[in-house]
Amino acid sequence: MEKAIKLLLRSSDELLRVLETYSIPINDLENRSVSNNADSSESINESRRRRIVAVVTHKDEENDWEEGSVFILKNKLFSSPYQDEFEIDRVLPVHGDFTITMAQVNRADLGVSVQLPSESALNQSRSGLRLHITPGGESEPLDLFTYDVQGLKNVLAECRRLRELAGMLTYIHTDNISLMACVDLSPETQTYSWLAPYVSNNVHIPPFTSVFPNIQETHRPLFTRLSPASAGTPGEDGKDVITIRDDWIRSRARNECRKARARLHLRIGTFNVNGKMPSQDLSVWVRSTVNEKKDFASVLPPLNEISPFSIGENNPIDEQVEDTLQTTSSSFSYSSTASTNAVHSPSPTASSFSTAPSVFTATPSATTVQTENSVLPSPASSTSVYSPIIVETEPVLVPTLNADQTDPSDPDMLILGFQELDLSAEALIYSTSTVREDAWCTAIFAALGEKGGMYEKLASKQLVGMLIIIIVKKSLKSCFSNIMTSSAGVGLMGYMGNKGGTAIRLTFTPPTTLIPALDNILSHESTKSGEPSTPTATSPKLDFQPSPSSQPSHESHGIKNLGSTVLTFVCSHLAAFDEMVAQRNTDYHSLIKKFVFDSSSAVSGVVDAESQEMPGQFESSPQHHPQEIQEKFSVFETDTLFWMGDLNYRIDLPDQEVRTLLSSEHWSDHGKYLLKYDQLKNSIENKHAFDMFSEHEITHLPTYRFSPGVAVDSLGYDVKRKPAWTDRILYVHSPLTTQIQPVTYASHREISFSDHQPVSAEFALDVDLFDKHQIHATATSLFRQVYGMEEQQERSKLRLSENTVDFGDLFYGREKTYTLSIQNTGKVPVAFRFLPLDAESEIHPRWLKISRMTGLLLPKELIEITMTTIVDNDVASELNLGPRNLNHTLILHSVMGKDLFVVVSATYHYTCFANELSRLTRLPGSIRALRGPEDLLHEDRAINAPREVMRLVNWMMTTSHSVDCLFLNRADQDIVHRLRECLDTGEDFPYSHEAKDSTVLVAFGETLLQLLDSLTECIVSTSLHAQCVSPVSRDEAFEVLDSFPQATVNVWISVTAFLHYVVQTSPDPESKAQRIATVFAPVFFGLFRKDSNPSASSATSTPAITPLQSQAFILHFIQ
Amino acid sequence: MSTKQFQFKLVLLGESAVGKSSLVLRFVKDQFDDYRESTIGAAFLTQTVTLEDQTTVKFEIWDTAGQERYKSLAPMYYRNANCAVVVYDITQSASLDKARNWVRELQRQADPSIVIALCGNKADLSARRQVSEEEAKKYADEEGLMWAETSAKTGEGVTEIFTAIAKKLPLTAPASRSGAARGTTAARSGVDLNKQSTAQGQNEPCNC
C-alpha cells in the first residue's frame, strides 16, 4: 500500500504515516440504497468507502524548515480490486486550526446499516475509533472510522509534532491551497506551496495530454526548439523548462510503459494506371515478394530467442545488442533521425532491435577516454548528433500478430494508391461512381489468389483519378478504428482534382490476444531478475537511476487496455513535366495544409468511443467525452505517415545521358549517379519539400515512361519522355512511438499495360505495447514530480563528473569518445541545456559532438553525456587552418539556475587531407612539421605540385607489378590509414616496391582517391567545368588544361598519365579506361559534392558538366 | 501599486577566493559557509532591495568564477550588466591588482553606463590586512568607483553596498541598453516591472 501511495508523491516529499480508514457517510439514505444491492457489490462498496490517511512532509534542510500535511486518499474508481491504486481526495495542511480528535464508537452509533467492510476477515477488535478532522482553513470537516488503534496514535503523534512546527514559524495564512500565486514569497516563509501539485483541481493538466505531437515538430532536436540563449543571457527559461519538461514526460512515460513491441507487416503500392482498367495479373505488385528465408528471417528474431523458455542467465537480447555494439565500431548508430541510413541500419541485428542502442551503454567507463576507432566517420555522424529519446531497455518484440496460422510474410495491411484511375472528362467534373474502384478491388483480390480469403477491404478514398485503398487481414480488422479520410485537389489552371491527393488516417490497437503471450514473457523476465520488473532493472548499464517513486510498481506491469498507434497514408499525384519541380514542391506544401481529418467523420471499425486515441499519447483525461469532441488532425498528427504516389519528380540530366547511364554496363551503379540528380532527393535534401521523409534505397530502374505502341529505346522507355522515378513511396514516423524498417522497394515491369510501372514497398512497423491507463497514470505521476519547476524557489544543483576534459591527440579519421556524467545533487528537478558562448557562436565546436543537448533530471538522478570528437573532411578543413591546441568551454546551463563550465581541450595533428591544393603546394615540408597554420612558403616559391599526391603516384608508378582491381575494389582501411600518416609526417612508406602485395597497391590507389576527394575544392573547380564539356579530341582536351592553375595541371597530368599506364597494361584497355573514368569523374569534378548539387543553387535544371561529359573528358587523357 | 519596481543585472568579478560567492550568499540568504567550493561556472541569483521611497530594485546577480582559466568567459556575463561589484580580499594585496584589471576591462568593454563598485571583502580579518582603506579608497575615487569594505562572514557592510548601488542606478530614466541581447534579460533590464506586466501578452512563446 505504501508503495502505491508513494507513486503519487513527489520525490521531494516524504511519507511518514499511513492509516487505513473508512468514511462515515453523512447521508444515511444514500447508504441504505447501496446496502440494498446484492452482496456482490459489497467489495465495491468497501473500496469506495475506504480512505487512507497519509501524513506527508516536505523538508528543506538548507533552510531548516519542515511542513506537514494530511492527505486523504481513496481508491481509484475502476481500479482493480486486487491492487491498490489511489487518487488524492483531499489535502489538508497541518497548520492553523488543524485538529484531529478521536472518540471510541460503536458501530451502531455510526448509523451505519451495512456491515463495515472486512471486519471479520481482518479479525480485528470490533470496536473502532472515530476520527474527526478539522482542517486548518475553512473547508469542510471530515469524519472517518478506523480499527487501527496503534496506527491512529502514530498519526496523531505526528500531526501534533507538525502542528508545533507550524506554530513555531510565522506563516502566511492560506486557505485551500490555492497557492499558485505564492511564488514570490521567499522560501523561508511557510507557504505550503509544495502542496499545490497535489490539489488536482488547481493543476492544469499540461498540454501533453491534450495536444498532439506533430511529427514534423518532434523530428527537430529538442534544443533547437528552445528559446535563443547564451552564456549570461539565459533566454526564456520559464518557457524552456516547460518545453523540456513536456518532452521528458512524454518520452519517459512512453519508455516506462512500453512493455514490448508488436510488428505489423505493411505492403504499400502505388500505381499510375493511365486510365486503364486492370488487364493483367497484379500478383507481383500486391503479393509479398519477401523471400522469407533470406531477407525477412534476418529482420525478425527467431521465435525461440525470445521464447520465455530459452531466457536463461543471459538475456539473448542484451547479448545481441552487445554484439551489435561491438560490430558497429562507430558508436553513433543512431546519430540522426533525419538520416535514413543512420536509423535504418543495414545491420540485421540492429534492425531487429530497432531502437538503436544508446551511446551511453557503449561506453563502460565514465572517466576514461575510450579507445580510438580508426574508422572514417560515416557521413551520417557528421551531421548533428541528436537523440530524441533515451530507451533504457530494448523492449521485447512480440513475434507476430498472426492470429491465424498463416505465412508470416503475408502483409497484415495492404495499402494501395492509384493515380489516373479515370481520365474521362466526366470524372473531372463529378463522379461518385465506384465502378472503377470495384474493378480494381476485384483484380487485387484475384491477384491475392488463395490468400484473398484472408483479407478484407477496410477503407478507401477517391478523388477523381486518385484512389487509396486499405485492405487488411480479416483477423486484424477489429484492431482498426477511427478511420478518417481526407482529400484535396491542387494544381494549376483550375485543374481541380486532376492533381492532388487522398488520405486515410486510422487507429491501430493491437489485438488483446497478444496480452497472454506478453504477460508470459514479462512475468518470466521478472522472476528471472528476481526483482521488480522495471525495464531498467534488468539492464546491466543504466544511464540513469530512476528514483524509486518514478518506477512503475511491479504489480501493475500487466497490460489490460492496450494503447494504440495512429497510422496515416497519403496517395498523391503531383504536377507533371520535367521543369515543374517547383510546382511539385508547392503541391506538396498545399497538400499538407489541405489534408484535414475530422474526427466527427470518423468511421469506426469498432464501436468504441474510448479508443479515440491520441497518437503517441495518453488517453484524454477521464472528464473528457471523446465522442463529443470534434477534433481536426493534420496529416502530421500521427505516429507514422506513409506517402505514396506519382510524385512526378524527374532527373535533372539530359535525356540522352539518362538513357546512356541506365544502359551502360560501365555505370553499374548508375542509380548512385542518377539519383544524385533526382529532383525529389534534392528537394528533400534542400528542404524544399518532403523534408524529414525517408525513402528506402532505390535499386529498381525508373518506372516512367513506357507505352505500348510508341517508339522505345533499348530498355523499353518511351523515346519522347525522359525516364524518371516518378512513382515513389516515402515515410516518416515518430521515433518515440514507432519503429519502421523498410524491407523491400521494387518496381514491377511485368505489369505493363500502363505508361508507369507499379511500385511496391514493404515495411516492418513496430508499434508499442503499453497500457493506456498506465501511461496516463505514469505521465500524471511524472508530471507531479516536476510540477512547478518553472517557479521553484529552491536552488537546483547539478554536479559534473569532470570540469575539464582533455581528449589528447586528435587525428583525422579517428574518433574518440568521453563520457561525462551529470548528476542532480539537489532536492528539486533540474532541466539543463548546453548554451553557446554568445548568440553568434555554436554550442560546441565542429570537432566535438554531444550526445544530449538538453535533459531533465529528478533529484539524485544521473545521466551520462557522451562527447565524441570526429575529424572528417569538413572538420579537418577548418582545423588545418587553425592552431594545434584546441580549447573550448562548454556551458551547461541548468534552466532557472547556474551555468556550469566544462573546458574541453585536444591537440590536433594536421593532415594533408582536406586542404586546398594551392595550400599543399606551399607547405615547406610535411604538414606535421608546420610551426603554425601560417607557416607557409610564399606564393611565388610554391612547389609545382603537392608532394603528397606525387609521392603516391610515384610509388605506384615504380612498383613492379600491376593489379587489375586497382581503383576498383575497396582497400584495407588500416593500410590506407598508415599511408595517410606517412604523407602527413613525411616518413617513408613502410612498404617495399618489390613485394607483390596487391592489397598494398590497392590501398595506395584508394589513398590517392581519398586524398583528391578530400580537397576543399575539387581538382577541376566548378568554374572550369563548362570548358571541359566541349573538347572532341585529345588535343582539344589538352588545350583546355591551359586554363587550369599550374598545380592542378601538374596533378592532372601526373595522375592521368599513371591511369593511362594502368589502362595500357590492362588486358581490356577499352573497358578498363571506361571503368576507371567512372571512378575518377566524381573525384575530379566533385560530382557528388553538396555544392555541385544543381537544384541547390539555382533553378537551372542541368549541371555545368554531367557524369558522362566528365567521364568523356577524362577518357581523352587515359585512353 | 504606487511603488516602482526595477530590475537590474549585476555581475560579481574578482580574483578566485576573494569571497564573491560568500558575499552573494550573505546578501541573498543571509548565510555564511566557512568552506565553500570554488565556483566553476556562473551562478544566477536574485535579491530585492527596497529603498526608502518604497522603490524596489531587484538584482539579477551573476556570480562568476574567479579562476583565471575562465577569464575569457567573463565578458559573456558582464555584457548588458547594469552594475558590477569588483571584489578584492583586504588580506591579499595581489587581489587588488586583479581588481584593477577587472575595472579596466569593464571600463573598456562593458556598457559605458555601468555602475562599478569596488568591494574589499574579509573585513573581519583586518588583523592580517595588506590593503589599506586609504589605498583602495584613493584608487576608487580616481576611477569614480563606489567603494566599501565588507565581511561576508559577519555581514558587515554587505546589504549596505548593494543598497548603495541600487540608489546609484538610474531609477528614473531606464537607460536603453546598448548591444541589447535577446530574451527577457534585455527586456527586463532597468524596466519598470509594472509596465512590463501589461505588455506580457505580446511575449507569446516562440514556436521556432
List keywords for this structure.
heterodimer; A: 1119 residues; alpha+beta; PH-domain like; Immunoglobulin-like; Phosphatidylinositol 3-kinase, Chain A; 7-stranded antiparallel beta sheet; 7-stranded mixed beta sheet; 27% helix; B: alpha/beta; 6-stranded mixed beta sheet; 6 strands; globular; IPPc (chain A); IP5 (chain A); endosome (chain A); RhoGAP_dom (chain A); DNase I-like protein (chain A)
Word description of this protein:
Chain A: Residues 943-1113 form the Rho-GAP domain. Chain A: Residues 326-350, 524-559 are annotated as: Disordered. The complex is a heterodimer of chains A (1119) and B (208). By secondary structure, chain A is of the alpha+beta class. Among the domains of chain A are: 1-24 and 41-110 and 127-147, PH-domain like, CATH 2.30.29; 792-909, Immunoglobulin-like (Sandwich), CATH 2.60.40; 944-1090 and 1103-1116, Rho GTPase activation protein (Phosphatidylinositol 3-kinase, Chain A), CATH 1.10.555.10. Helix content of chain A is 27%, strand content 21%. Chain A is built from 30 helices and 30 strands. In chain A, the strands form six sheets. A seven-stranded antiparallel beta sheet of chain A has the order 4-3-2-1-7-6-5. In chain A, strands 8, 9, 10, 11, 12, 20 and 21 form a seven-stranded mixed beta sheet that branches. Chain A has a five-stranded mixed beta sheet with strand order 13-14-15-18-19, with helices on one face. In chain A, helix 7 (237-257) packs antiparallel against helix 20, helix 24 packs across helix 25 and helix 27 (1046-1064) packs antiparallel against helix 28. Chain A is flat. With 208 residues, chain B is an alpha/beta fold. Chain B has a single domain (5-174), classed as P-loop containing nucleotide triphosphate hydrolases (Rossmann fold, 3-Layer(aba) Sandwich), CATH 3.40.50.300. Chain B is 32% helix and 23% strand. Chain B has seven helices and six strands; from the N terminus they run βαββαβαβαβααα. A six-stranded mixed beta sheet of chain B has the order 2-3-1-4-5-6, sandwiched between helices. The longest helix of chain B has 17 residues, at 93-109. Chain B is globular. The N and C termini of chain B lie far apart (36 Å). Strand 30 (899-908) of chain A pairs antiparallel with strand 2 (41-50) of chain B.
